[in-house]
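This follows on from our talk about sequence and fold. Please put the record directly below this note.
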Amino acid sequence: MRVHLFGGVLAYDYLLAGWLRQAGVDAHYFFNIKYAEQDYPWWEDPAFTLTEMPTWCHYYPFRLPYRYRGRLDAAGRRFVHEFNRDADVLLVVGDGLFLAQHYVRPYALWSCGYDIESAVPAPVSLRGALSKLMGGPEPVRLQRAVNRRHVRQCLAGAKLIMTVMDFQIPTYLAWTGVATPAFSVPMPLDCDRYQPVLDAQLVARYADSSCVFFLPTRHSYGSHSTNDKGADKVIRAFASALDRLPRGTRLVLVEKGERVSESKASAAALGLGPHVDWIPELRKAELKHWYSLPNAVILDQFPNEATLDPRLHAALRRRGGRGSIFAEAMCMGRPLISNLGTEWVEEHRPPLAWNACSETEIAEALVDAATLTLAQRIDGGAANRDWARREIDWPQVMGRYIELLELVVQGKAIR
């Protein structure tokens, strides 16, 4: 089976292609000019360059036209020709969906969520609707409506959808009216590449801190989107819990995202200056150093109940939203606070993780996590790594991916 992959969310199309190849599939990775550095393959593999890359990787220097019927330049047209040629099935990741009108081979979508979300009008709470006002000038609203229709058509043309955000199947995907079969799949990772890597200077810097809460996500919040990361909630929760946290507890935030200045102002207004450290955006190798801090507790992302449609928020509370931070923290054997989802926790029971969503729940989880002894962190971390190897390590997951792709190639009914 020959599989061609394209799209790019945190270089996951590159990672998936590599894992499929190791599992015996003839997978080829196609990529173009990205809008975010973190979507290039060298984000995960520093040895990867445009002049030194595997023969199964193919680069075409064009930018993706996000608008419906956006024109492709010569490089884009060459990509379309080669992407379709010789493939048994196309596996499009995230942005790859938006070129579906050019695909002549059967295609499947691997989704982290925002692609499906962009197919329906934003369902928001009353407060969220008021904050959005009218959503921008009339031409902008019209373009959004046209694009949503295009994305729905692309979803409908797919033979199947694999999503790591299973809360979107009964919500966004159901609201599109699209009948494409959809399956929940784990977000895989290579546990062997996520072993603790201690940085002596970093360890020494925080040697006197009883607990270091590390929030690697970007500062995007205050909108109607489930892509809100909830950094603002973490800052407020930390402030409310500070009096109950051990002396020397630190909160480490990354200067990434469009709301960094607002987050800094909020932290200052809450008197958190002496307790918060801001660090520049990190490459993956640097990120692993922070994950490896013996006294670190990782904070994930948390949905915004103030502006989300209540149906969406309820689904997120039940099923959670587990992305790359969750997978990385578990593989690295770190304590984790995340919106895991009440139903999901009952089904999968990760050993050392707190399920939290509201500011109050986040604050209580901070207090609980900060009281862990070093021995508890070591034992719990080892249990988290064992759990990750069973549940999300790529050799445990790729069989299901291959099974679904083979059904597409065989043209069999997918249920």
In short: The chain has two domains: 2-188+394-410, 191-391. Confidence is low (pLDDT under 50) at residues 124-142. The longest strand covers residues 26-31.
